[in-house]
């Protein structure tokens, strides 16, 4: 009985040690006496106790490796690039992925360093920012080709961060700020120029309209004076006296307008009883003299014209 129990116990232990489970998206590597025997997929699996053992497990999930690479650009600026590589093990190449590489992360990192330090030194710093997609594609292309022999497939390579030296970043910010201030100054200058031009146009239009108004006003005044002279001539007053009378009338109208405004300056005029009569006589005399001078000039011109003939 004891022997039977012992036998049963041994069988149970052997069966228990021979059963094992494999998680989803995982492959178990089975070795027999140190030699690869088989690979087992997800689920409950059985191996020969003592003889077989689970040498390791390989994940088939997409994995990500982040690598920070320091390198120098073409314009001698040191920059740190953060590269994120997404990869997975090909299900039909589990043997290669498990046995050919001692440390796959270090191998991938070495390839990333090699590609980045071959591509970035060809570019200036500004191009590194603008062409980061090209850098990522170069990493993915070269890394994919190199890792296929080891059972790895590169899904995507991304340049997730570009970090220049702190002094370089400060200088770049200053350049950017200066450029923006220059553009702002240009826009302000354009706005001021447009404002000045529009103001000048408005002022020119105002002057034009003002001149037209003054011309119309003088035309109407001249027409009114002409009508006044005609009326006075009909009353028996000659043209000189009529002109003098009109001037005197305008003179007193002007004084009346000045007196109507409390802020007008004081004007002192002759105040003796004969002042108005004297002013009228002086104006008539001046007009008569002017007419005589005009007539004399006309006569001289006529004589000169005949003499030349």
From TrEMBL:
<dbReference type="InterPro" id="IPR001107">
    <property type="entry name" value="Band_7"/>
</dbReference>
<keyword id="KW-0378">Hydrolase</keyword>
<keyword id="KW-1133">Transmembrane helix</keyword>
<feature type="transmembrane region" description="Helical">
    <location>
        <begin position="6"/>
        <end position="22"/>
    </location>
</feature>
<keyword id="KW-0472">Membrane</keyword>
<keyword id="KW-0812">Transmembrane</keyword>
<dbReference type="Pfam" id="PF01145">
    <property type="entry name" value="Band_7"/>
</dbReference>
<dbReference type="GO" id="GO:0006508">
    <property type="term" value="P:proteolysis"/>
</dbReference>
<dbReference type="InterPro" id="IPR050710">
    <property type="entry name" value="Band7/mec-2_domain"/>
</dbReference>
<dbReference type="InterPro" id="IPR036013">
    <property type="entry name" value="Band_7/SPFH_dom_sf"/>
</dbReference>
<keyword id="KW-0645">Protease</keyword>
<protein>
    <submittedName>
        <fullName>Regulator of protease activity HflC, stomatin/prohibitin superfamily</fullName>
    </submittedName>
</protein>
<feature type="domain" description="Band 7">
    <location>
        <begin position="17"/>
        <end position="176"/>
    </location>
</feature>
<dbReference type="GO" id="GO:0008233">
    <property type="term" value="F:peptidase activity"/>
</dbReference>
<dbReference type="GO" id="GO:0016020">
    <property type="term" value="C:membrane"/>
</dbReference>
């Amino acid at each position: 009985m004891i022997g039977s129990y012992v036998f049963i116990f041994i069988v149970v232990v052997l069966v228990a040690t021979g059963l094992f489970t494999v998680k989803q998206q995982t492959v178990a590597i089975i070795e027999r006496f140190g030699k690869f025997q088989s690979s087992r997929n997800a689920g409950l699996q059985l191996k020969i106790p003592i003889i077989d053992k689970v040498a390791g497990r390989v994940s088939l999930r997409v994995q990500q490796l982040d690598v920070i690479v320091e390198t120098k650009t073409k314009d001698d600026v040191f920059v740190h690039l953060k590269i994120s590589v997404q990869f997975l093990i090909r299900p039909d190449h589990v043997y290669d992925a498990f046995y050919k590489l001692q440390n796959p992360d270090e191998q991938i990192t070495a390839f990333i360093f090699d590609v980045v330090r071959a591509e970035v030194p060809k570019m200036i710093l500004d191009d590194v920012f603008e062409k980061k997609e090209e850098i990522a594609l170069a990493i993915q292309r070269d890394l994919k080709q190199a890792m296929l022999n080891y059972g790895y497939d590169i899904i995507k390579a991304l340049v997730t961060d570009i970090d220049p030296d702190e002094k370089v970043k400060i200088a770049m910010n200053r350049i950017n700020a200066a450029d923006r201030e220059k553009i702002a100054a240009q826009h302000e200058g354009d706005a001021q120029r447009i404002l000045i031009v529009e103001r000048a146009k408005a002022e020119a239009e105002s002057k034009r309209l003002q001149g037209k108004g003054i011309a119309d006003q003088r035309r109407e005044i001249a027409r009114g004076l002409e009508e006044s002279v005609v009326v006075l001539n009909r009353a028996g007053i000659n043209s000189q006296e009529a002109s003098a009378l009109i001037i005197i009338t305008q003179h007193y109208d002007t004084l009346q307008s000045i007196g109507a405004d409390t802020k007008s300056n004081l004007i002192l005029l002759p105040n003796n009883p004969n002042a108005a009569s004297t002013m009228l006589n002086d104006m008539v005399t001046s007009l008569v003299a002017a007419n005589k001078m005009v007539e004399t000039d006309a006569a001289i011109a006529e004589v000169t014209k005949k003499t030349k003939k």
